[in-house]
Amino acid sequence: MHKRTVLPLTLIVLLSLVLSGCGAAETQAPEPAGTPTTPATQPATALPAETEAPTPEPEPIPCNIAFDSDRDGSREIYSMAADGSNQVNLTNNPADDFDPVWSPDGKQIAFVSNRESGAGGGQFIYTMQADGSEVTRVSTQADSKSPDWSPLGSQIAYSSMGEIYLVDMLAGTEVNLTSSPEPDEQPKFSPDGKQIAWLKGDENNRQLFVMNLDGSNGYQVTQGGKVNDAEWTVDGRIFT
How far is it, in rounded angstroms, from Cα 19 to Cα 161? Predict the structure, then answer.
C-alpha cells in the first residue's frame, strides 16, 4: 500500500505562491485596430549601490614559540617560528632566565630570572617586549615563580614562598591573595579573567582550588591523590 504524504498547510500555500509566480506570462488580447498605442515606459536607471568602508583587519598575533634553554651555558629565553626556524636569544644574560609566558596580545613575555637588579639579586618576575627589549621587573617577593598573564594583559599572578600574589601593572599594586599556612602555588587565570585556579598543599596532598580575583570565595575542586598541574579550557572548565 502506498503511503500518502500530507504537506502542511503553510507549505502548500507557499508552493502555490511560488508556482503561480513562476508560471508563463499571461497572454494579452491584441489591441483593436486604430487604437493609439501608449509608448513604452523607459525602465528606470538603477543607481549604483553604496559600498561600505572595509572593516580594518585586526593586527595579527605573532605565531612564535618562546622557550628556555641552557645551550649557551646559562638558561636563556629564546623565540622561534612554529617550524623551528629563526631562533633568537632574547635575554642574553649570564643569570638564569626561564619559564616564559606570552602576553595575550603576543607583544610581551613574562619570565623568571635570578639576574642582578637595582634591588640586588634574587629570583623575580620580569617582562620584556617580544624582541627582548624593555626588560622590567614586576614582582617584589623573593623566590618568585610560575607567572601567568590575565586575559586582558594588565595583571600577572605568580607564587612566592608558598603564597599567591597578584600584580596589577596599570595600578602599580601587588597583593597577597592567599595568606595561608599551607603552600599555595601555580596560579592560573580563568578565560574570563574573573577567577584564579591554584594548587594548595604539600607534596603528599596537593589539591586544586579556585578563588575570585580578589582572593575571596576560595573552594576546593579535587579530592584525594596529588595534583601536579592544572589548566583552564577555553570554555571555563579545568583539567588536571
Answer: 79
